[in-house]
Fold this protein.
Amino acid sequence: MAASVRDVAVAAAVSVGTVSNVLNRPEKVAPATVERVMAAINELGFVRNDAARQLRAGRSRSIGMIVLDAGNPFFAAVARGAEERADEDHLSVLLGNSDEDVDRESAYLDLFREQRVNGVLITPASSATANLERLRTAGIPVVLVDHEIADTSFCSVSVDDVEGGHLAAAHLLQQGRRRLMFVGGPSSIAQVTNRLEGARRAVSEVSGATLEVIEMPALTVLNGRAAGEAIVAREASLRPDAVFAANDLLAVGLVQGLRIFGGLRVPEDIALIGYDDIDFASAAVVPLSSVRQPAEEIGHTAVELLLKTIADPEGDYERRVRFRPELVVRESSSV
Amino acid sequence: MAASVRDVAVAAAVSVGTVSNVLNRPEKVAPATVERVMAAINELGFVRNDAARQLRAGRSRSIGMIVLDAGNPFFAAVARGAEERADEDHLSVLLGNSDEDVDRESAYLDLFREQRVNGVLITPASSATANLERLRTAGIPVVLVDHEIADTSFCSVSVDDVEGGHLAAAHLLQQGRRRLMFVGGPSSIAQVTNRLEGARRAVSEVSGATLEVIEMPALTVLNGRAAGEAIVAREASLRPDAVFAANDLLAVGLVQGLRIFGGLRVPEDIALIGYDDIDFASAAVVPLSSVRQPAEEIGHTAVELLLKTIADPEGDYERRVRFRPELVVRESSSV
DNA sequence: AGTTAGTTATGAATCGTTTCAAGCTTAAGT
DNA sequence: ACTTAAGCTTGAAACGATTCATAACTAACT
């Protein structure tokens, strides 16, 4: 069907080797020949077959990336940062969505291995390291994104979630709130448990302060709304006076849920703070306080680190890049 | 480096053909042999080389998709719908971001051709059909997404943007507003011009109503904010009393921009309506009126149509699926 | 014993690109 | 005229999975 180098070679009356040279090292070919070959290429509408090229090369020109939720603007931004950096090295990024599910994660990793990707960027869906170990034994370079594990041999680019959680909770406490609630996601996700740990620490530093924890099945707007409605449905005395949501999606949903049926006011009745500082946070019904993470820079740095690891697995460079979270105060948490 | 079928064959003491059969038609192989081969596969950590498989097969197991902005929740939802449907047929979706730029679009299309994708879903960045014609001559099946062109031989899945624009503007007029403004994006984008055309039509039906048009370089939150600030900066008599934004991202930004420095109130001073009804619309500072499009269903249907086209290019089925937009009224447009 | 049908396994050929040692041509130098 | 070098081009080999015609073997018949 489609034209091959052989067809081009015949049309231009040269050998296949020369066609390949025109494609890959035109400076090694006589100008007149280049022109003739290019003419044949255009005439036949020849397009390189990447599968054959990869087969010969033994590896692909792509890296795999798995995020928890591509619909979350935070991860969308991280992915964009990664793509931009990868593009500089003429690599493309295969993006997969685990939806916080380990099996989907495994499925994508299998796909990536079949594709012979150069490396993998991953925000693991679970603290179980089985999938990571498998990558390691397969000899595939890995960089953990927005996640860090005890095993220091794994490269990672992360933000200190414990500190971020502390920042958020301490801020609520400083506003005079004492009955805090943490609305999180599955405790299998490290970000969630770390942010919670930071919050716990902050609460323990203030006498009389309490922290209730509610676990939702996923970090989505819908779950946030459900949590909000559940709070509204409670007796007034059982309601928290401040809520720390594990991410902005939950927080946005919470605002909706809390206000439903003319329920509770934010921040008067309940102060609220989210996490990630996505674009929409500042545009929410009540502009949302949040904890900012440098999303694009994380993606950028992750690819950078991956490339280093590929080039020199044993090299002398920092294997764990850590950014610091930043508190962003808006109306949702301050009267 | 990595194990190949040949290595597996040696380890299991069978021929390479048998290994391939175990992989692809295990029912044709004696159970005992299957077991032996599987053991060898696990032992060696063998993973199929997809490049070799594709080379032999002559085509890939993927389809290409190009959207205007993957960070826009509307397109994220369309892409998700497409992926879900593709997954049912064991196809993966290569997602590319044109950022409304024709050159980036071309670059992705080249990449897709090298990958020998089975077909392409595309929301064109321009009304110029050069890229589409190139796909056609290359014999690559195409389905236009959220976009329709005069040439009826191209398949498309779209929503009637003229009707949507009419719905939005008519609604604003019905609220008693007369000095309308349309905040759009580059006029090269068909959605923008169609929505504007619908709005123009609605305005022409009401005597005394006017429509001012402002063109922003892209349909983003940031541009919306800029437009909002520009409106605030005007003399009061020159301000519109209602704004129709070409999408929700612009609208969200407009809310921010209009309210900046305690500027204008929405909807009292200026009524506002967006387009797409993304999740965040209902959670905006002022819950946003919008025009809803069935995003996931669009993605789903687009893949469905693409598969039909691939299976039978000449078949007897509807080549242009058209959904109808739906007005969603919230606080931003009604007092 | 001989034929047939059925089941299972084989291995060479193939896909399209890249690589690289070897060959050819021309120009320059002695 | 002869050598050397430099510049271009060649074509076979290789990458790894799949296919398919063919072979080998069994079992079940006459």
Chain B is about 45% helix and 15% strand. Residues 4-6, 16-17, 19-21, 23-24, 48-57 of chain B lie near DNA strand D (CB under 10 Å from a C1').
